[in-house]
Structures are given as structure tokens and as C-alpha cells.
């Protein structure tokens, strides 16, 4: 006997219908974890208290793990795993011999990183200038953030369920670096650093400040996910699998890269 989708979902798998629909493989690690001398940590000096948004590596519960392991396509999307964790499946003894399938939606399932690289001058955020053209002695220039600057990263192309994809990319990127990654970070007005830069007489000193960011390039796998029920057995089946090349810029939180220049006019 074939149960209708509505009947199966209501009697045997209510959690899936009630769960909120929210918005893998080894990688080649080309990320350089060493921080150049001209890049400084401003976490203590930053006048804007950035919130530390650590990525949660959600562990699937027993049911979710059983379903994920039954899939031929690797499932790493934390939002999909969260939905499975919040669901329940308690087949009735009367369900023996019944068959059915429930469509769970079209999901980004995993992200494979092909390349990671650091851009220490991703976005200029400040310029301090000291004019010593008329001076007779060397003067010192320090970094002082003149205006609050909000640095945003993001995906390099449009894609479905972009927030899910961003989470998977950030999780994969964070696994290869100790630097604090965040798709948005802020440097507050008045943020200072004690490090000084000498400006000789007859010169103008320019101290440029940049927000660094990590560039990720890889492939995201999408698929239509079905829950297949056959008697007391259950499994996930992924259909119409597609892959999309994707990239992302992820700023480094509370870090500033400096470039100092001297000019005669």
C-alpha cells in the first residue's frame, strides 16, 4: 500500500514539516597562516567591539547521522543538519509494508575548496598624513582611525540559499587558519596604534591602512533531497545534482595592514 505524502508526513514524520526552513572533501590549502610584520592586531585598541561569531560545527544526532550516512552525496550544510536534528521519525508498527517519499527541498549540500589566498590590502580604510615640508627635525606619524569603517565581504556570484553557502565556505576556510574570519567587521573611529613612522624634514608622510581578507574559490554542490520510506527503513536520496563554481571574500576581523610612504611634495 502506498501512503500519500500528507498522510506519511503527518503520522510518521511530523518534525520535517514543522521544522523551520532556514536560510567536503579535502581541500588544497594555499592559505598562508603567517602574518606579515606590516599587519597588526587591533582587537584591544579597536573602539568598536566586534562580536566574535564563531562558526558552530553542528553535530548531527543519531537520526540525522543515519540519514546523512545513507546519502550517496556528501551532506555538510549546517542548516540542513539543524533541520534534521529538530525533526523526529517514529514509525508505527502498522507502517510495515508501506512506501512513500517526502520532498525536503533543493539544498546546497557541500562546498569543496580549490584555492585559498590572502589579500592583505583588500580595502583601504584610512590615511593619516603628516606634512613636514617646512620642518627642520624628524617627526613621528601614528595610525589614528579618522572615521568608522565597516568592511563587508560576500560571495563573488549569485547563488541559491546564499547564506547557507557562506556558512559552509566560512567553516571550510576557518579550518585552515587561526585568523578570525567574518563576512563583516568594523574598525571604530579613534582606534589607535602606538607604532610610529618617522617623517624626515622636507618630506610628507602617508600612512595607509587596509583591511585584509581571505579569498576562497571552490565548488558548491546542490541537489533535490527526498526522504524515502520503505516499511521501517528510511534514507535520503539526492536527485538532480548540480555543481556551481563559487568564490568569496571573507574579511579578517580586528586586523589592519599598513603601508607607509614618503613624498617630497
Walk me through the topology.
Layout: H1 5-11, H2 14-18, E1 39-41, H3 62-70, H4 78-85, E2 99-132, E3 139-144, E4 149-152, E5 154-155, H5 162-174, E6 184-187, E7 192-199, E8 203-230, E9 233-251, E10 255-263
Antiparallel strand pairs: 1-10, 2-8, 3-7, 4-6, 5-9, 8-9, 8-10
Protein name: YfkD famly protein
Pfam families: YfkD
Description of the structure:
Helix content is 16%, strand content 44%. By secondary structure, the protein is α+β, with helices and mostly antiparallel strands. The chain has one domain (5-263). A hairpin with a 2-residue loop joins β8 and β9. The longest helix is centred in the middle third of the chain and has 13 residues, at 162-174.
Uncertain runs are: 1-32
Shape: elongated
What is the strand tally?
10
Q: How much of the sequence is in beta strands?
A: 35-45%
Mean pLDDT across residues: 86
Total count of domains:
1
What brief labels describe this structure?
disordered N terminus, single chain, 265 residues, YfkD famly protein, YfkD, six-stranded antiparallel sheet, 5 helices, alpha+beta
Compact overview of the structure:
This protein has 265 residues and is of the alpha+beta class. Helix content is 16%, strand content 44%.
